[in-house]
Amino acid sequence: MNSTILFFIFYTSISICLADSDNLQDACPTNTTVKQTVFINGFPCKNPSSIIAADFKTSNLNHAGDTDNFRHSSVNIVTAADFPGLNTLGLSIARTDLEVDGMVMPHSHPRASELFFLSKGIMLAGFIDTNNTLFQSFIKAGDVILFPRGLLHFCLNAGFEPATAFSVLNSQNPGVVSIGGAMFETDSELIDKITRRLISVPASELKHISNTSLAKFSRIHFH
Fold it and tell me: Is the pTM of this model over 0.85?
């Protein structure tokens, strides 16, 4: 009898703890006007009476990022800190711009999976699982590729024109772990390793892609 009562109390306690896992209101836009003094799992919410339509709209991804760098690439991640309406919804958004021969180096998001939608251009994109297996695909405008949570992933421009992609990540704060910072290597050393060891494109796939510039990567092994 006592064990039954204890089980009931334990089960009820768990149910109470889990009951508030979802939002308790329709929306909870970030209150950007106050300094955060109490650190919670998210941001303080605005007073519901002060919520406006502009809280749910952003123009932060309207323009291409600065690709004038060694990698010829730009990644702009927008979180609830910049887009108030995202607060408590478990979402972030991003824009990736690649110039010709541009590359986003292998990195991971420890708290999010990423849906990567190619808006313009041609890319070679992929990820590496925990068995060290490489999954990669050529993607063209309109295609979507998925990068699972916590796995190293990358993309490079495989065409003769700039490429642009937009992403949705299922975390309010996805985080970014760069393989470059973790390995203490220069960008040139990492790019050399990627082109020599990671990226191996079957020749049968190339015939389906026009204007590909992957031949410029002289150390890529085609088979």
Answer: no
